[in-house]
Amino acid sequence: MHRLAFQYSMKLFLISFAVIGLLSSLASTSASAQNIHTFSGSIKNAETGEILIGATILVKELKTVGVSSNAYGFYSLTIPEGKYSFVIQYIGFRTRIDTVLLDKNLTLNFELTPEAIRVGEVVISAERSNKNVTSTEMGVKNLEMHEVSTIPVLLGEKDILKTIQLLPGIVAAGEGSTGFYARGGGVDQNLIMLDEATVYNSSHLLGFLSVFNSDAIKDVKIMTGEIPAEYGGRLSSVLDIRTNDGNMKEYTGTGGIGLLASRLTVGGPIVKDQGSFNISLRRTYADLFLRLSSDTTINRASLYFYDLNAKANYTVGERDRVFISGYFGRDNFDIPNTFGFNWGNETATLRWNHIFADNLFSNTSLIYSNYEYSNNVSAGTSQFTITSGIQDENFKTDFQYFMSSQNTLKFGVNAIYHTFLPGTVTATSGSSFNGITVPNRYALENAAYVSHELEILSGLKINYGLRFSVFTLLGPAQISSYDENGDVIQTTGYKSGQIIKTYTGVEPRIAANLLLDETSSIKASYARTSQYLHLLSNSVTSNPSDLWVPSSNNVKPQYADQVSTGYFRNFGDNEYEGSFELYYKNMQNQIDYKNGADLQLNPNVEALLRYGRGWSYGAEFLLRKRYGAISGWIGYTLSRSEEQFADINNGQPFPARQDRTHDISIVAIYNYSEKWTFSAAWVYNTGNAVTFPSGNYQLEGTRLVPLYTERNGYRMPAYHRLDLSATWTLGPKTNLNFSLYNAYDRMNPYAIYFRRDPNDPNKTQAVQTTFFPIIPSVTYNFTF
Amino acid sequence: MKMKTASAVLSERLLLFLLVAAVAAGCQQVVSIDLNKADPHLVIEGNITDQAGPYTVKLSKTGNYFEPALVFPTVSNALIVVTDDQGQTDTLKEVTSGTYQSSTLKGVAGRTYSLNVIAEGRSYDAISSMPKKIFIDSLYALVRNASRGEPGYDIYISFKDPPEPGNYYRINARSSAAIPADSIDGRRYRVYTDKLTNGNEMAERIRAGRNVQTGDTITVELLSIDRPTYDYFNTLRDVLSSDQAATALAPTNPNTNLSNGSLGYFSAWTIDTKMIIMK
Q: Are residues A251 and A224 in the same domain?
């Protein structure tokens, strides 16, 4: 099985290299024909040697010409011969202006110096980037790590997944949840990638924290609207997380001690300016307190999570660089002789950057990712263990061809071999349980894409592309078909490697930008996305036991079409960035469950699903200030998300659980003095759509049973919360962070349930559970 | 077996509970919620057993959620007919308001029974098959190990699941003295499938706790039920669990075998009963 996937990947690899050979020869001839030259290179942080992602280079003399560094810090720009002033910008760094005589192809590596945030400093306005206005990107937001580290979150643990939930178009799936809904899509419709490896479960402690240790992370980008053709496999969003490469110049370390967890990061050069490494470790220590208990059950119990990010890179010559990175994380919860469960992700990425020509960049990656869950239960003499998970072996190669200053071509291929492990029960002998294995499923998910960004006319830029995806469910497998009652009609056996079912997706992606003037533009986009993997969960909270299942003869792929349009405008010499976007998204083959569906360990789980349509539309407003002593943003989303299933709610549309009519977030960061930084975040959203009973009846003479009528016909009370944080810089290398979660102690409902009134058994009452009242915390951070 | 997967979910919930308890002890409050008043729905409860008749079908109606009636409205003057696949037909008689009883019908394992109810101008149907009878092999009680939870008894019921798959059970346990009289451990709907235990010797534990004292007589019934009945009680149990109500995607009414939007169930089951006196 693995051999097949490998052979297939190799074939793709060879084909793509043949294509590339051809293109690169074309590239060099066309460049030398007229007096046109390419300058290319990388943009780095002068202090650490870390590459900068998304730094911009503008050519002063050619007004509309500019380029951004890609995910590996590489840029390339082909322009006529001449003497130029290049303006190199990156937020948080001192802008650099270099004058260069371009009379041949040049390699220019730029280093930018981080700008210490100084109070009251006046930044020269002309140097602020207006990239948000000029690019074709829509529904795309970058988070800067300094924002992530200042914005208050639960228990002082900075967390990127909590912070992106403060952006318009993205809402938390629940109180204290790392799961999120992007423009009305489900939690499984987000492609979450850590150094290109898919992370299938992004939660620690059942969702209170994400698996991403902010100290290890360099760049975070979320795409909810125009999803570029290089990304696929999920309907609603792509969260692209890139980790730090490690300091190229000297050994450094950072760390923090918090109430919940401590973390430590060390990094440094392997060979100065050629190779570096970075290792980040984080662990909770709640379980250490359990040891102090005199109760033998409690002091032998474990309750912890840890995660480790490790990365190394090495530059080989002028044109090649290799990266190896890995993530290992695990949550463990165990009460001896009773039960235990643990889950975790592992990812490993091997990457090779190669510059074929000054204007042709490539990256090739081999990626492994694994998620597994296990649950042990001891009941007297009966003991058993349930395990489940998913594994990916992934090959991808991507090319970026900078044809001219008006033309950029991207293309690539991707092949993923998925192994789904729906569940195995291992029982001890003498147990009344039989061991059971729900057979694994195997699938190959392939895609090829091409996209072309070009400036048609001065001020009109379009980026159009096509992604073609093919999903094949492969044997060995026993595949059943089901009748209406979910009973098996027929079962067919397939041999190893035999094709069971193939689905394809033709996914056009188009975005256009019409620049009205230097500070405003109108954009429009259309994207079709396909999703072949589905997360089955029978609870509103994301559980570690939630199952990923492949599309099959019974389960159809999900497809979505999204159109969006927006007006982008900057104010005050680009000090304020404003945007207003409208979107409509239609989603096919959305999944719901039959009543009483038992999703775990069920070989016939596909019989328990039912399918419908979902749609979502809304308006997003964002005003962001990225410069100065006070920075932050105000975001507001007005939206609706609905679903329709033939046999739910009498076939009538009902609000999806992602539906939040109003969603407001206000974030402010104030650099008050050299010693103090303050920040505040306030969120408000309409309560979740929920199903409450509309009546009552009696069974077996005494028992009261609730009567349900319309699906999601009720609303939870509105959710709102203010978080505050203050960072006190003790010295050049240490600071103390104080934070207050839920500062005005709002009793936000996590759930509402109904019970008999303890004082009057004839009455029923509604009880609201709140997870987090006001919670203060303090964290000590240091660098060395 | 449902219990196993339930325990997996349970352990997660328990961790969730512990986490919540740790950070938000006592963050529960009674709130007032405005609920719609649904139009009254018909509720049908009927069963046929392998014991001697008469068998009962009850008709009632739903009420408002927050103001449950002490006595729910009953539905009189309905025409109720039960037939089996061997040609027996019995028209039930209303003995008290909303309660109808058979006169000639005799429940036999292996037969399929059909119910037709015509009430207030609408007709409702259901079908149920009475499975093969399964007998209780033994019933015994053990004093619970004091170090694990509250003192009391664990009562074990053992029976042999037949070799062929697709058997479903319901177990009822009552105490002569327990309060409430109909349940010794608060679990009312105890249903099982042989999904993970096919063909095995089964020993199900009933945690009797403090409700059972020395000298009490415990009656345990093993019901052999068909798949729709299992589905009904299994989904009913979900509906009644407040834990489920708090985190379920969207609670719905239990899966019923009754047609035409009626609530409740119609079931044919066999019963084997054993008693034990606690020593």
A: no
B179 and A CB contact within 8 Å = no
Structure tokens at A333: 């919860």
What is the pLDDT averaged over residues A360-382?
87
Q: Please indicate if any CB of chain A lies within 8 Å of the CB of B166.
A: no
Per the structure, the count of domains in chain A is: 3
Q: Are residues A218 and A246 in the same domain?
A: no
Does residue A523 share a domain with residue A586?
Answer: yes
Asked if residue A413 has pLDDT above 60, the reply is yes
Instruction: Point out the residue among B16, B23, B43 whose CB comes nearest to the CB of A772.
Output: B23
Task: Indicate the DSSP class of residue A51.
Answer: B
Asked if residue A421 and residue A555 are part of one domain, the reply reads yes
Task: Provide the CATH number for the domain around residue A502.
Answer: 2.40.170.20
Contact list in A for residue B45 (CB cut-off 8 A) is 699-700
The Cα of B71 is separated from the nearest Cα of chain A by a number of Å equal to: 9
Q: Are B267 and B107 contacting, i.e. CB atoms less than 8 angstroms apart? A: no
**Is A621 in the same domain as A720?**
yes
- pLDDT band at residue B7 under the 50/70/90 scheme: very low
What residues of B are in contact with residue A657 (Cβ under 8 Å)? 249-250
Q: Interface pTM (ipTM) of the complex?
A: 0.86
Question: CATH number, domain at A52?
Answer: 2.60.40.1120
Encoded tokens for B66: 């927050």
Distance from CA of B108 to the nearest CA of A (A): 23
At A254 the pLDDT is 93
A778, A677: one domain:
yes
- Given A93, A128, A163, the domain boundary residue is A128
β-sheet with A751-757: strand ranges across: A751-757, A760-769, B28-31
Task: Please provide residue A399's backbone torsions phi and psi, each rounded to the nearest 5 degrees.
Answer: -125, 145
Mean pLDDT of A425-432: 68
CB neighbour list of residue A732: distance below 8 Å, 6 or more residues apart: none
pLDDT digits 0-9 by tens, B148-167: 556 677 888 999 999 998 89
Q: How wide is the angle at C-alpha A316 spanned by C-alphas A315 and A322, nearest 5°? A: 55
With respect to residue A392, please indicate whether it lies within any of the assigned structural domains: yes
- How far apart (Å, rounded) are the C-alpha atoms in residues A589 and A646? 12
Do both A269 and A150 map to the same domain? no
Confidence category of residue B10, pLDDT binned at 50, 70, 90 = very low
Task: Report yes or no: A386 and A375 within 8 Å, Cβ to Cβ.
Answer: yes
pLDDT at residue A116, as a whole number: 66
For residue B20, give how far its alpha carbon lies from the nearest alpha carbon of chain A (Å). 6
Cβ contact A303:A332 at 8 Å: yes
Q: Is residue A135 part of a domain?
A: no
Q: What domain range includes position A730?
A: 240-783
Given this model, what pLDDT does residue A111 score? 93
H-helix or E-strand spanning residue B58: strand B56-61
A463 found inside a domain: yes
The confidence score (pLDDT) of residue A562 equals 97
CB A770 within 8 A of CB B29: yes
The answer, for B264 touching chain A at a CB cutoff of 8 Å, is yes
Mean pLDDT of A270-299: 81
Do the bridges between strand B201-209 and strand A703-708 make them parallel or antiparallel, or are there none, so unpaired? unpaired
What secondary structure, in 3-state letters, does A699-734 show? ECCCEEEEEECCCCCEECCCEEEEEEEEEEEEECCE
A-chain residue closest to B20, CA distance: A771
Would the pLDDT of A673 be above 60? yes
* Assigned domain for A502 exists: yes
Task: Give the span between the Cα atoms of A642 and A651, in whole angstroms.
Answer: 12
Please tell me whether residues A333 and A195 are part of one structural domain.
no
- Suggest the residue from A259, A703, A707 to mutate for an interface test with chain B (most B CBs closer than 10 A): A707
Q: Which of A193, A221, A239 is the last residue of a domain?
A: A239
Place A758 in a pLDDT band, splitting at 50, 70 and 90: confident
